[in-house]
TrEMBL record:
Organism placement in taxonomy: Bacteria, Bacillati, Bacillota, Bacilli, Bacillales
Protein name, as recorded: HNH nuclease domain-containing protein
Coiled coil: none
Pfam annotation, one family: HNH
Stretches assigned to the HNH nuclease domain: 239-295
Organism from which the protein derives: Saccharibacillus endophyticus
Protein origin, superkingdom: Bacteria
């Protein structure tokens, strides 16, 4: 019992010590010394969140809304009816369609979520892939930058706090939390619920980085590139993103900042003539920009 009291007293004393430290002038001076770095990291974090919003808003057919109540006796309840979800990301279908969607997901995604097999659709999904890819890379680079900044001031931080309260230390320094979840990837569902309510099945199609790369390739085999010379056209895939960065020596073509000189630099691929203004996904129309220059450029054409 005495041992537990000693442990409890030590724990309380340590928590008081941590609280006092984070309120001390010494810590506040240290915080002010890295304010510019934390502000830059938080700005990048906001940019990553913006990139995550680049999804393609595709819908299934709208069959209207309703409310279903099963007033049957307990032994006759149609339990599977409760799984009959209605929203714009769910297509309610037969068991056959659900099975076929699992076998040929892209074909059925286009057919039942009304995705037109056109170059415009292909360009839209390429743009989404480009932004999602940058967001995923950005999360990793941002964490590395957080860790690097904290490591550089390690000698000015009490060893116990650095070891046991590193995440709290980052928050107190002003770093915003990085969202590492992939919940922003759109998920489209084919759902079957039997009329009797006794069986159900579903097929989920998640448009993550890998599936978006595959989907872009799938669409490209079906689309005729009317604007492209002799049908030749680059596909904005993860592989092409890396190819353009290598060509541009991992340097921003606007401000000149380079990943070789600046660690944890998020580089993005930009259409010099934006797709919205008639630009195409061709290597000659693509350039590497740092995230700040790309965000500033937006849909502008820079000569």
């Amino acid at each position: 019992m005495e041992f537990l009291l000693v442990i409890l007293a030590a724990f309380v004393a340590y928590q008081i010590y941590v609280m006092v430290y984070f309120k001390s002038e010494k810590f506040n001076t240290l915080k002010r010394s890295v304010e510019a770095y934390t502000a830059n990291c938080n700005d990048l974090n906001h940019h990553i969140q913006e990139l995550k919003n680049a999804y393609v808003d595709i819908n299934s057919y709208d069959y209207g809304k309703s409310t279903l109540q099963d007033n049957s006796n307990y032994n006759f309840k149609r339990t599977e009816w409760n799984k009959n979800i209605k929203n714009r990301y769910v297509h309610n279908c037969s068991a056959t369609v659900c099975k076929n969607a699992n076998d040929q997901p892209f074909k059925y995604l286009c057919k039942y979520f009304d995705i037109k097999v056109t170059e415009a659709s292909l360009s839209s999904f390429e743009a989404v892939l480009n932004d999602f890819d940058a967001a995923e890379q950005g999360k990793v680079l941002l964490k590395q930058e957080h860790d690097s900044i904290v490591e550089n001031i390690k000698n000015s931080i009490p060893a116990m706090i650095y070891r046991f309260n590193k995440e709290k230390l980052k928050r107190k320094l002003g770093f915003e939390q990085i969202d590492f979840s992939t919940l922003y990837f759109p998920v489209y569902t084919f759902q079957y619920v039997s009329a009797g309510g006794n069986s159900s099945a579903k097929c989920d199609i998640t448009l993550d980085i890998d599936n978006l790369n595959r989907f872009v390739g799938y669409l490209s085999t079906l689309v005729k590139f009317k604007k492209s010379v002799a049908g030749q056209r680059a596909l904005m895939t993860s592989a092409l993103r890396e190819k353009i960065k290598i060509r541009d020596h991992y340097a921003c073509q606007s401000c000149g900042i380079s990943a070789y000189d600046t660690k944890h630099l998020l580089l993005e691929i930009d259409h010099m003539i934006p797709l919205s203004k008639g630009g195409e996904t061709t290597e000659s129309n693509l350039q590497t920009l740092c995230w700040k220059c790309n965000r500033t450029k937006g849909a502008k054409i820079i000569a």
